[in-house]
From TrEMBL:
Domain RDD: 20-131
Name of the protein described by the UniProt record: RDD family protein
Keywords: Cell membrane, Membrane, Transmembrane, Transmembrane helix
Locations listed in the record: Cell membrane
């Protein structure tokens, strides 16, 4: 039995390099989705107050922008803007570079939602387990 999340992964209990806790993760998600909504409103004509019958495909603009932010920032900055603002970074378990395909798969699984809310004992969502990553405190 693990005494704390990340112990079996060889991560410290707290501080730099420890598993990012749910409060930070949710905060980062709010920051990222708010940024995506602002960008979608400003550049893609997203109208958050339009009726679904009037919105057409633009109703998915914030989700598209959210995915693009994840895909661009994770391999280049080590995490999404929300992750970095709240002092987290996404790393591979083996310490190597994240690469290009992992952020794509991870973002697609995040859009499905369920993989992100199903966690293991180390507080890693299925989206992170699927691509071999872990969200840690920077």
């Amino acid at each position: 039995m693990n005494r704390y999340p990340g112990e079996r992964l060889g991560l410290p209990e707290s501080g730099t390099g420890s598993i990012a806790r749910p409060g930070r993760r949710i905060g980062a998600l709010v920051i990222d989705y708010a940024a995506a909504t602002i960008i979608a409103t400003g550049f893609l004509g997203f109208d958050q107050f339009a009726l679904p019958s009037e919105a057409g495909l633009t109703q998915f603009a914030p989700l598209l922008v959210f995915a693009v932010l994840q895909i661009l920032f994770i391999p280049t900055a080590g995490g999404s803007p929300g992750h970095r603002i709240l002092g987290m970074r996404l790393v591979r378990l083996d310490g190597a570079w994240i690469g290009l395909w992992r952020p794509v798969v991870r973002a697609l699984l995040l859009l499905v939602v369920i993989p992100a809310v199903v966690w293991d004992a180390d507080q890693r969502g299925l989206h992170d387990k699927a691509v071999g990553t872990v969200l840690i405190r920077a």
